[in-house]
Amino acid sequence: MATTSAAPRAPRSIDDLKQLLCDDVKVKVAGIDVDGVLRGKFMSKDKFLGAAASEGFGFCSVIFGWDMHDTVYTQELAISNKENGYRDLMASIDLSTFRRIPWENNVPFFLVSFFDPKTSAPICADPRGVLRNTVDNAAAHGMECISGVEFEYFNFKETPESAAQKHFTQLQPLTPGMHGYSLLRTQLNQEYFHALFDESLKFGIDIEGHHTETGPGVLETALAYTSVMRMADNAILYKFLAKSVGLKHGVLPSFMAKPWGNLPGCSGHIHVSLKDGEGRNTFSLSDVDRDRGRANAAFEDTRYLSQIGEHFLAGVLAGLPDVMPMLVPTINGYKRLVGGEAFWAPNAITYGYDSRAASIRIISPPSVPPSATRLEVRVPGADMNPYFALSAIFQLGMRGIAKQLKLTTPPISTYQSYPARKEVVLLPSSLADATNVMMRPNSIAREVFGDDFVDHFGATREHEVRLWNAAVTNWEVERYLELA
After folding, report:
1. Which tens digit of pLDDT belongs to each residue from 89-120?
2. Any residues with CB less than 8 A from the CB of 229 and at least 6 apart, and which?
3. How far, rounded to the nearest angstrom, does the alpha carbon of residue 133 sit from its chain's CA centroid?
């Protein structure tokens, strides 16, 4: 199975694969669950080669029947359950994803996708399968999805053991203070800071930018723009890399969206555009319009965005509330959005030219060359599953193009200039509310992704909400224990 952008040294045939692995004795493989957690194992080279030459190998379906802490879902779901005995799925090896893991003695590594062993149909909730459907949808319309992801993440002078012993409280940040874009703070942990960048390049993850962000011990890493499947693979593997490199340096990186209530959260901003069959950015203007902008633009903010780009933007805005769990999948993620514009974490259906206060930032001339025209979706946190988040954005945008949707609200600058205006629509403020919106009978999510996916993924989010509702937090104890 090939993705739209193969790794530079990926084998093109089984003979290539055998030659590639001639000096190896084992191979590491992994798939992705709905929470964006890598689930994998080592295989002997012989077993791996046999699987690669056939339909694949058996992989326990329970990874789609339990949560990120291996707790079986409270509601039995169709893919994996007691009735079907938590049967095996067929894990199909994607040869185009080949890499070597530099911090594990260069062991070869491949990603897999999951299929029903009886029907050979893709599993509805397999993240790579969901994104592949999105890629195929765009390709059917002569388009290629291109994207980039930026992660912000806290880093602690802790280990998994020390954090657990402290009950995840009073964790020591890697560096003190609020120092975004600091050249000085990185001098304190040079080996770790440089290793993140250098090991990424060895691992086949190109990095565009790497710096400190505002917050104690916070870093931001921008992954280089590429085809969407490659981008999602790079994003999920960058988290794996950061945590693995961190273990070697006594550092615990966290991609949790909002670890502390009084500090900015951790974003997972997504940049998107579409290329046509000739490799041209379809969001950019034609040569005729480039000097003065598009005369028929809906608003001044979209003057240097193509008509296709405007339809795409309208599609994302129209469907944003219906796919929120795909962008913000955790209980904690919605705490990041509570502060809204105060923390540059938008909690409303808004857009604007070069506006970091908006949910969708239009990046176009005159601030960038026409070829760099794109949209930045600023709603997701660093805890997102990149496959689902990217699928949601592109599927909504393609829907906007297909239906030729128009912008129905003005840009965010209008509301900022006239605060009394009431048209702004807030996004769901909790995972429970967001899941209810996504799962309602006629939601745009059901239209775009189908009932099987929405019912499965929605049920996993309902499971998360049930656990949260049953939990007693430190805040509750501190507030009510003595005085209630």
Report:
1. 999 999 999 999 999 999 999 999 999 999 99
2. 3, 4, 5, 128, 131, 132, 135
3. 16
